[in-house]
Sequence to fold (580 residues):
Amino acid sequence: MTSHKPAMSREELSAFLDREFPQIHFGGRTYHVEEVGPLFARLRMDYHERHLRPGGTLSGPAMMGLADLALYAAILAQIGPVALAVTTSLTFNFLRKPEPRALIAESRLLKLGKRLAVGEVAIRSEGHTDLVCHATGTYSIPERR
Amino acid sequence: MTSHKPAMSREELSAFLDREFPQIHFGGRTYHVEEVGPLFARLRMDYHERHLRPGGTLSGPAMMGLADLALYAAILAQIGPVALAVTTSLTFNFLRKPEPRALIAESRLLKLGKRLAVGEVAIRSEGHTDLVCHATGTYSIPERR
Amino acid sequence: MTSHKPAMSREELSAFLDREFPQIHFGGRTYHVEEVGPLFARLRMDYHERHLRPGGTLSGPAMMGLADLALYAAILAQIGPVALAVTTSLTFNFLRKPEPRALIAESRLLKLGKRLAVGEVAIRSEGHTDLVCHATGTYSIPERR
Amino acid sequence: MTSHKPAMSREELSAFLDREFPQIHFGGRTYHVEEVGPLFARLRMDYHERHLRPGGTLSGPAMMGLADLALYAAILAQIGPVALAVTTSLTFNFLRKPEPRALIAESRLLKLGKRLAVGEVAIRSEGHTDLVCHATGTYSIPERR
Fold:
């Protein structure tokens, strides 16, 4: 599988997400696309009240939402908004308690086929090297016109 | 593995979640514990703006948060709040697009050991029989005092 | 999703597997199709030397092979051998040590679409009610002629 | 998490597996430990008749067995045979059809705690760069004496 230049730039992807999925910013803009590359995307999720559990720990669901968004972003950036992928499955391993700071999610596509895309996501606390959460996911890609 | 009567009633569990995890109601009270039983819990998640994607579809992350809460609730109800379980892994299969209505999550523990609990969750649109989402999860149970 | 009568009987499915996948019997015939029904199959795997770990415990890989076969059988029985499904993903939870006896695997399809099938499998030791292993899997279904 | 030198060398690990798990070689010696490193192991599985499906394709169960062995090997090499890990869960994504040649599995531990170890495995056809199969797994580590 050859790695081609993505169909969308960071700015185009960011603008598309804002326009088509404004709900991800419900309660405050906390998701940011930092970089896109061939079969790759890096996102940042701010340390924000709406993502917290008591005691100030970022919640599991906040991390799961970030991982899903990061994989979706990598697919979208690569093929462009010609056919919108749908999540079919996701697996998460929660490895360490996150720090009280932003999370960085790096998603990488392991396979991008005509009908399915599979990728993995590594989530870390900003500035830290140990993994907080690891995920893999499969997305169904409808027929592209 | 014998199925014992849970350590907490529906009301006790609901009050505990409200007290210890008020963040789940951030933006509006949408999660409700409908029933608890031996190794079992049933929760309802309202069809609420904060859980939606454009077009009015309940989002994947909303369903993932519901599944995690339902499994956590089943464990907590069974053993009581003597040791709070921590999610170690979750796997989701998104099967069908949900209806524009509440979701019902039924969680069932497949194993409740001294150190780990494993359960599955079936999520359906209220009043419908087909599964919208199926999940399995593993939770780590700290040493119980 | 309506449950239709499967396209293949138990005997037809069993004969098809023997003919097209003789390798599953490499080292001894240990897999048996016991029953098929709408979106359902039940298989038995004998307690055989080739499936054991030291000490006589049935191995994880033996159980994983059984689960994959049970899901594949349920799909094949339902739609017939018009398009052969390919495993795209599998998740296993190993819950209890199996008994030194046969394993019974019951697979149930949660969704049977045009392009993907998703199912779950419950594996128990013959004669016992507690789950030994639980699995979910997704299979890709090629274009049907 | 600091990466320490493994407790076992490649030769020690290989000898231990041969001695304690002779069943993995049932039907022919096809698994080989090629390298161990901090939180890492690389294994090779030969292209052998017993691992094949009709048409000569390496089977899913053969790949699943290889992945489980590779993760187990990485854990064992790192902590030594003081407490033998038990597989609690595994998730597989089958990405591409393998080539008719040996498979190389590289396992990497994402977390090695006191009670649980989590790792991922990348499986490729020998000499090829594209992933054939990707897996993640969680292992329970009994109390170490």
